[in-house]
Amino acid sequence: MPESEAQVAISDEQAALLVQKGDKDKFGLLMDRYKARLFRYGRKFLANEDNIDDVVQDVFIKAYQNIRSFDVSQKFSPWIYRIAHNTYINAIKKISRGPIYTFDFDTIAFDTIVSHPVYEDPLIKETEEVEIKKMVEKGLGTLSPNYREIVILYYTEELSYKEIADILRIPIGTVGIRLKRAKEALKKIFLKK
Amino acid sequence: MEHKNTQQNTIEKKVLEKIQSGEIKMRSKSYFILKVALLVIVALLVLVTSALLVSFMIFSLRVSGRLFLLGFGDRGLLTFFVTFPWFILLADILFVVLFERLLNHFKFGYRTPLVYTLGASALIIILAGFGLDKISLHEALFQEAAGHHLGPVGGLYTDVRLPPRQEGVFRGIVTNVVTNTGSTTTGPFINAFTMHRDDEDTDTDDATDTAMTWYVILPPGVSVAGFVKQGDVVLVAGDILAASGTANANSDGTSTAHGTIRAYGIRKMTTEDEQ
């Protein structure tokens, strides 16, 4: 459904506020804006999931049920991505009947323990984007789930370190360090191929 | 591409239909406020329980005299570690971890590296524990427990004042001092004293039972003269010698001491120490 001019003028946060106040139709506007992104995120996240429709639908239902927990002074996208992240993880758990994150001592134990200095350089992102995106397309499936999700959120969904930190509930420095390691892993995979 | 769009639009339509029909409803704002309030209350309860455990640990170490073992050299240090309430410490560590996990539900919690949140949680709990120890909360509870007013919780305080006797640590009152230069009593040892063991009750044995009387031989280099006098309360750590000694425990007659302790550490307890 294409958005009307009046709808385009409304930000996600303003639309969410209207939904909170009872304007149910504005939730349609939010779904319109996020459905393609959440489908894309879901397809990459749940590589082997057939019923992606049901999972994405579940994300929107949960978002609607919990929309009054959304703080309209914050950005809407990390909030809905957080719901999507949890829903997708639950979907994977249902299939595998076990935790999806294998215990990766290197990443899990240490990268959230200490503080890593982090600097998000948009110039670096721009210059390496084409190259990395090419690598992501080819090597994403071979990455461990921790790295895979970070790469999707940063390069495909184009979210900032801060937004990713809020979605995954990890320190911002940890986002930086995982992304760096993910890129290194991708480069290795790419060179091998 | 067209299939994708149709797929996405169908979902959007389905969800909107469910919303319009009332099949799915928004949760009220109060539901989320209650959830956060509950989380805060649980976090505070965990914090208080954990601080109480820390203060109880400090209290038990202090009133049983085990804390003073640290001043008794290597042997004292070893006994301190052997008799340390590790179970309480372990339970407390679990509470600290639980508190840190609860903090992670808040933005400042998950955005801060684990080492800082865990360190800050531990520091807050330890400081709160020392704070609770300072306000003599456990002394009051101990008194309540002694009067059987605390129910099952009182059981925690039953043996808390007793030093670890099985490890050769005793508290008692000096009954006689034995010196090599004209003591009030004579016995098989010099540079020693007899002690009436304090068993933390008010039985009839407290005044008369010889099983409560022990010889204590002082560590080398420590002279009994001027160190302790009759009536002093002392904490003694040492090796229990197998044979019972015969002692003139009282100046007016003889009695048999229960045994002899070769002390490696003695501390004269002040009123402050016992509080």
Summarize the structure in words:
- The complex is a heterodimer of chains A (about 190) and B (about 280).
- Chain A is mainly alpha-helical and about 190 residues long.
- Chain A contains ten helices and no strands.
- Chain A is globular and about 55 Å long.
- With about 280 residues, chain B is of the alpha+beta class.
- Chain B has two domains: about 30-160, no CATH class; about 165-275, Beta Barrel (OB fold (Dihydrolipoamide Acetyltransferase, E2P)).
- Chain B is built from ten helices and seven strands.
- Chain B has helices at about 1-20, 30-65, 75-85, 85-105, 105-110, 115-135, 135-145, 155-160, 205-210, 270-275; strands spanning about 170-180, 190-195, 215, 235-240, 245-250, 255, 260-270.
- In chain B, the strands form two sheets. A five-stranded mixed β-barrel of chain B has the order 1-2-3-7-4. A two-stranded antiparallel sheet of chain B has the order 5-6.
- In chain B, strand 5 (about 245-250) and strand 6 (about 255) form a beta hairpin.
- Residues about 180-185 and about 245-255 of chain B have low confidence and may be disordered.
- Chains A and B meet through helix 3, helix 4 and helix 10 of A and helix 1, helix 2, helix 5 and helix 6 of B.
List the keywords.
heterodimer, A: 193 residues, mainly alpha, Rna Polymerase Sigma Factor, Chain: A, Arc Repressor Mutant, subunit A, 2 domains, B: 275 residues, alpha+beta, OB fold (Dihydrolipoamide Acetyltransferase, E2P), five-stranded mixed barrel, two-stranded antiparallel sheet, 10 helices, 18% strand
Oligomer: heterodimer
- The total count of strands of chain B amounts to 7
Q: Briefly, what CATH class of the largest domain in chain A? A: Mainly Alpha
Helix content of chain B: 40-55%
Number of domains of chain B: 2
Largest sheet of chain B: 5 strands, mixed, barrel
Spans of chain B of at least 5 consecutive residues whose pLDDT stays below 50 are: 182-187, 245-255
Helix count from the secondary structure assignment of chain A: 10
Query: DSSP helix count of chain B?
Result: 10
Measured between the Cα atoms of the first and last residue of chain B, the distance is: 79 Å
Q: How many beta-strand elements of chain A?
A: 0
Q: Percent helix among the residues of chain A?
A: 55-70%
Shape field of chain B = elongated
Whole-angstrom Rg of chain A: 18 Å
List SSEs of chain A in N-to-C order: HHHHHHHHHH
CATH H-tier superfamily of the largest domain in chain A: RNA polymerase sigma factor, region 2, helix turn helix motif
Question: Major beta sheet of chain A, specifics?
Answer: none
- Relative strand content of chain B: 15-25%
State the secondary-structure class of chain B: alpha+beta
Radius of gyration of chain B: 30 Å
Q: How many structural domains of chain A? A: 2
